[in-house]
Amino acid sequence: MTNNERLRFAPSPTGDLHVGGARAALFNWLYARKTQGKFLLRIEDTDRERSTEASLKSILGSLRWLGLDWDEELVFQSKRGELYRSAVEKLLESGAAYRCFCSKEELEAERERAQREKLDYHYSGKCRNLGKETVESYVREGKPYTMRFRVGEGETSFDDHLHGVTTFRNETIGDFIIARADGSPVYILSVAVDDADMGITLVMRGDDHLSNTPKQIMLMKALGYEIPRFCHLPQVLGQDKHKLSKRHGAASVLEYEKMGFLPGAVVNFLALLGWAPGDDREKMTLDELIEAFSLDGLAKKSGVFDLQKLEWLNGQYLNDMPPEELLPLVSALFVEQGFIQKDEVDSRRDFLLGVIIQLKERCRLIPEFAEKGAFFFRAPESYDEKGERKYFNDIEVADRLEALADSFESLEIFDEASTEAATRQVVVNYNIGVGKLIHPTRLAVTGMTTGPGLFELVTLIGKKPVVDRMRRAAEYIRKNSEETNG
Asked: Are residues 400 and 274 part of one domain?
């Protein structure tokens, strides 16, 4: 492992930050932090039509949400035109590049001929040996041209950390375009110039860029640049082993934030998509990830995105978080759902913390606090259908609920101990099993058949709302019994 590595993440601002890009950013960030190096961010915004300010804000916001801070100033390719033009001129002067005057129609004809002959297409090199006078004449005439790199004979090899020694025969690559007819640089030239100018020592990116690497190396050698090391990461796949997309669930980091995932859980999950710490750990803090991260732990096979595992991991993070840290997230949800007013959050802090404590072991996502905890704020509008058939099926249940409601109402101290004692006394009075009172009471108070401990939740809800709900349920049972019995 080399110290003070310089790595980069280079997104295009043409959409949100997707899972595959987020994982690549994370691996680069982890290795930079591991080596006390630098993690740099380069915005590849040369596609003026598709690049938007909204996408840039979304990408930067997603990185910040994940906790992936960057060193040094942002680099924007759109502001580095002079640097690219200078590189093209240098390549042209040295003879490493030349002007290509072939029209689109001529190139398309070459491509079609290759298809007919069932050959892999690469440029024929038609313009690589044009005489100086011919070139100057075409330029004076205003004949449009692109700039092509003159690919030499032989092979281009590099030692990729995951793929090992990788070799491309130059004849299969052909002379490639480095600048368009309008003078703007193509992707491969910008990348080569930027990686050198930014002092990048390790290029870690998706293996869909593997075939670009020999071109980058050729350009960097021709420009006299130092060649970085390379590590091409396998793709992230869905559980059907196809490339991850929206059909596998949310594809962007922004969507996972909106779905109620915690950034620590998402980072932890992404880190394990194609990397292993060398032991059985599945839950790791950011500091633990930095400490354990190494390139040797990277997998050669594609990581498989398992949404259920992410939800499980998120539940672990929720359960381990102190209630005080969850309070801002959960209270904002309760305000959004209309359970409380925003100006009530401070005054009802203890109550909200109590709700969080009772629910957090049962939730995997933040929105579940509202789904599973609405009864803390309002009486149930209906009862669980199966629970109603099972626990509200006898007129005597109404009598027991009324009796327990009376007992609760008479309590001077309404806490877990007193409510449990009152419940057990009613059980004795009616000579029934405790479940025959606890289950109907839970259903009456919450509308559900499962949830936190009964005595903890009734204490938190409070005496009057609990008693009112029990009397309402008793009335509901009697009414249904009358209708059933005619």
From this structure: no
Could you list the mean pLDDT of each consecutive 10-residue stretch along the chain, which spans 486 residues?
Answer: 90 93 97 97 89 94 96 96 96 96 90 85 90 94 95 96 96 94 92 98 96 97 98 89 65 88 96 92 94 95 91 96 96 96 96 97 96 96 95 94 97 97 97 96 97 96 98 95 70
Contact by Cβ (8 Å): 305, 273: yes
Residue with tokens 């071109």: 215
Full domain range(s) for residue 93: 80-233
- Out of 57, 243, 246, 479, which one is annotated catalytic? 246
How much is the pLDDT for 477? 95
CB 14 within 8 A of CB 45: no
Active-site annotation holds for 246: yes
Contact yes or no for 214/173 (Cβ under 8 A): yes
In 2-76, DSSP assigns E strands to 6-9, 38-43, 75-76
Distance CA 132, CA 136 (A): 6
pTM reported for the whole predicted model: 0.89
Q: Residues 282-291: contacts with CB within 8 Å, 24+ apart?
A: 282/313, 283/313, 283/316, 283/317, 286/67, 289/30, 290/30, 290/33, 290/34, 291/34
* CA-closest candidate to residue 250, choices 69, 67, 62: 62
CATH code of residue 104: 3.40.50.620
* Cα–Cα dist 170/164, whole Å: 19
User: Any idea what the CATH number is for the domain that residue 476 is in?
Assistant: 1.10.10.350
Residue of 445, 448, 400, 446 lying closest to 424 (CA atoms): 400
DSSP state of 413: S
Q: Is residue 457 part of a domain?
A: yes
Is residue 204 within 8 Å of residue 229, measured between CB atoms?
no
Closest by Cα among 421, 426, 428 to 455:
421
Please return the burial class of 479, using the count of CB atoms within 10 Å of its CB with bins 0-12, 13-18 and 19+.
exposed
CA torsion through residues 449, 452, 458, 460, sign: negative
Distance CA 485, CA 68 (A): 66
